[in-house]
Amino acid sequence: MFRFVHAPVLLLTVVFMSCPSPAFAQDATAAWPGLDVSGLQTIYARDRAGVETEGKLLRLNVDSLVLLDHGVERRLAIDDVVRIQKRDGLKNGTIIGAAVGVVMGLLAAGISDCPDDAGGSCGAARVATVGVSIGIYTGIGAGLDALVRGRSTIYLRPDPRLGRTAASALGGVAFSRAVRW
Fold first, then answer.
1. Rounded Cα gap, residues 109 and 96, in angstroms
2. Over the stretch 155-164, which tens digit does the pLDDT of each residue have?
3. In this structure, what are the phi and psi dihedrals at residue 166, rounded to the nearest 5 degrees?
């Protein structure tokens, strides 16, 4: 039973569904999470054959990434790329060093004697001890991080059997297995 009350709703539905809407292209950064194209970031891309390509990231496309490898542009298809890594910055070593400095500074300030007053609290000396400790251990952490050039994996090809990357499925640990009869 069609009523005339439903006619305006039906008419508006047909009008709105027949209006064209703009279609937006897929964002290239969604296909390559963790990559920054604003600067020439050095990355390491490993393909299916196990060959690693080091280069500066020039641009991202939906189906590929373009690297500057020794002055030559190289295009790597998304289907060929297995893993992308980038160098670690000094940030994590600096943060770890500062955290160790806080702990060691508090420990040193807690067990140290006051330099001038045998019975006083000597708060300024204890605060200075913590501050110096933080500074020293922050420098050590940043220095060690600069000497040891680590890498962070920013893209790992999804495993079609699991529907996601093997590393994310296992909490960051990737492995392979085979069963033969």
1. 20
2. 887 766 655 5
3. -65, -35
CA 128, CA 117: separation in Å to the nearest integer?
Answer: 16
Choose which CATH entry (3.20.20.370, 3.30.497.10, 2.30.30.100, 3.40.50.1000) describes domain 28-88+151-169: 2.30.30.100
Q: What is the pLDDT of residues 105-150, one digit of tens each?
A: 999 988 887 776 655 668 888 899 999 999 999 999 999 988 887 8
CB 153 within 8 A of CB 84: yes
